[in-house]
Design brief:
about 350 residues, 2 domains, alpha/beta, about 10% strand
Length: about 350
């Protein structure tokens, strides 16, 4: 095992001379009771395992240093707690520097089965996806094992994530079992991505700005004696604000800065009609109540036509947005550019 702080490196003897190009990144924070079992279950198809001690007060990093002899394990340490996102991006940077092709992120608490690694990596290596993520909602029978509060919270967060990220065909956005191609990860603005619990959802938004392909991987929900630090009831308000921010940024960038399409005009017209129709109709409705008069039929029809037409245009816009979900993987094109010297 190697231990690293910053850029200092001590390389253990006995490394294999061949590479699969697959790296695993594990953020480690209070995982001492589960991490040994997780590491033992990671198969030989993985070359590097980056355990990132996120300034754990319980000494998760020290436990790994004392008890893990696997030479693939590289122990990284954050000088201060940076959250799950900060820990993962630390691991991503080191994996990219070491030449990894695909980076898989799993948690150290035992909730994620390392035996599924192949299912997450295969679509990326085949060129069908740039980023894969787990979906615990794929098999409805398995959802029963998930606590009710988590089910409700994840459903709400999933619908918000669809709109903010632009990936309308994915679900379970807070699922932390993910894999990404290194060529795509290199293009992510690590300095701008959320470092805390919004990390998994925020990275989806960033991937959409790159037009990367995201694929859901069915997986079972596994819950033991571990404690989740994410409470849907506590973060729903914070997440709503961040989703609204990302949605606004995505629409502005995708439909008005990077490209201009019929959907862009439909959105402008929809907002104008709904806004004016709502204000116009609401003002006349209030005036009629205040003065005890009847609103003229013509006034009612103007407001109704504006609202109905605006709603139709808004639905047309979302229909276009849903249909424009990225379908062609990005990393094969990035690799071709790099190999031909264009990048």
């Amino acid at each position: 095992m190697r231990q690293e702080v910053g850029v200092q490196t001590h390389v253990a003897a006995g490394r294999r001379t061949w590479r699969t190009g697959v790296a695993v990144v594990i953020p480690c924070y209070k995982v001492s009771s589960h991490i040994a079992g997780v590491l033992a279950a990671i198969g030989p198809e993985v070359d590097w395992i980056y355990c990132v001690d996120d300034a754990c007060p319980a000494g998760s990093g020290d436990f790994i240093a004392r008890n893990i002899a696997d030479t693939r394990v590289i122990l990284l340490r954050n000088a201060q707690n940076e959250g799950v996102g900060g820990a993962v991006m630390h691991g991503y940077r080191r994996a990219i520097e070491d030449g990894a092709s695909v980076m898989v992120k799993i948690d150290g608490d035992g909730q994620m089965d390392p035996a599924l690694l192949g299912a997450f990596v295969a679509p990326i290596l085949a060129g069908d996806a740039d980023y894969t993520k787990g979906n615990r909602f794929f098999d409805l029978r398995e959802i029963k094992s998930m606590p009710l509060v988590r089910r409700i919270g994840n459903l709400g967060l999933s619908f918000m994530a669809k709109a903010s990220s632009g990936y309308w065909d994915i679900f379970d956005p807070t699922n932390g079992y993910t894999a990404i191609h290194a060529e795509v990860a290199k293009r992510l603005p690590f300095e701008s991505i959320s470092h805390r619990y919004f990390f998994e959802t925020d990275i989806l938004f960033r991937l959409n700005t790159l037009r990367a392909v995201v694929l859901d991987i069915p997986m079972d929900a596994r819950y033991g004696d571990e404690t989740s630090g994410l409470s849907a009831s506590k973060v729903i308000g914070e997440f709503f604000v961040k989703h609204l921010r990302n949605f606004s940024k995505r629409i502005l960038y995708s439909y008005f800065l990077r490209d201009m399409s019929l959907a862009s005009l439909e959105l402008v017209a929809a907002v104008a009609m709904l806004g004016f129709g709502g204000i116009f109709g609401g003002w006349h409705w209030w005036a009629a109540i205040a003065h005890g008069t009847t609103t003229p039929v013509g006034t009612i029809m103007i407001a109704t036509v504006l609202l109905v037409s605006g709603l139709q245009l808004l639905l047309a816009f979302f229909g276009y947005d849903i249909a424009s979900t990225p379908r062609q993987a990005l990393h094969p094109r990035l690799q071709r550019r790099r190999f031909t010297g264009l990048d």
